[in-house]
Design a protein that fits this description.
The chain is 77% helix and 0% strand. It has helices at residues 2-19, 29-47, 53-76, 82-105, 114-122, 127-140, 142-152, 165-187, 194-204, 206-211, 213-237.
């Protein structure tokens, strides 16, 4: 049950932090306020099918936490770095774990309201499985791309700075599809087939990999981290 609560709050965080944020690098505090308000709205919207007073209090607390963390970052004028980004996300995950643990300790249950539960029952969808796969698909797209970009920034070859916007978008899409396929393969127990996915990805870049050592290392680190990210995400939600 704690994993279910953790998944619920993590999905809210993923939506509020990664998918519905405006420009966080604008340098204006009004963006911090607006983003925090958006974070709260997303939290309340996602809460509707599961509404209960403990959950309402929990999402308010996590929304306040978001506002505090973003405000501290703004006041300290910290430049967004990989270490700062990772630290920030670990703080969020830590507080999400604490809130989920408290709800479990107080013996609360995460249950859909009757109308939503009845609807899913009629179309034979398990609510827990639905929540799990929503979380997996959400975390495999934008959060993964942002995280990998942050962590690989210092390994990026200098000549890669001139890569066009369309190439960057294509690379992000390839990585997203790669992670989704890996998640599907893990879910059906086809672990060995993951190697085929990585092989197919490498074939498309074979010439550049063989001719450019710096790019080859950058590409390998990115591919391995993307794979590790997908596997880690699966075990977080499943």
């Amino acid at each position: 049950m704690i994993k279910l609560f953790f998944s619920f709050f993590l999905i809210i965080h993923i939506l509020g932090f990664f998918y519905f944020q405006s420009d966080r690098r604008s340098g204006k505090y009004t963006y911090i306020v607006r983003n925090s308000f958006i974070y709260l709205l997303i939290s309340l919207f996602f809460l509707i099918p599961f509404y209960s007073s403990p959950l309402l209090i929990s999402v308010f607390l996590l929304s306040i936490l978001h506002f505090v963390i973003e405000s501290v970052n703004y006041l300290c004028k910290k430049r967004q770095t990989a270490s700062l980004f990772v630290t920030e996300q670990l703080i969020y995950l830590g507080f999400i774990s604490i809130v989920a643990s408290i709800l479990i300790y107080l013996d609360y249950r995460l249950e859909l309201l009757p109308p939503f539960n009845t609807f899913l029952s009629k179309i034979t969808i398990n609510p827990d499985h639905l929540l799990t796969w929503i979380g997996l698909l959400l975390i495999a797209i934008k959060p993964a791309n942002v995280t990998i970009k942050q962590l690989l920034a210092k390994y990026k070859p200098d000549h890669e700075e001139s890569v066009s916007y369309n190439q960057i978008k294509a690379g992000a899409l390839i990585g997203t599809l790669e992670r989704i396929i890996i998640l599907l393969l893990i879910s059906v127990g086809q672990y060995s087939a993951i190697g085929l996915v990585l092989t197919a990805k490498s074939v498309a870049r074979y010439n550049k990999i063989s001719e450019d050592k710096a790019f080859a290392e950058y590409y390998l680190i990115g591919s391995l981290f993307s794979t590790l990210y997908a596997i880690g995400a699966y075990f977080i939600f499943i």
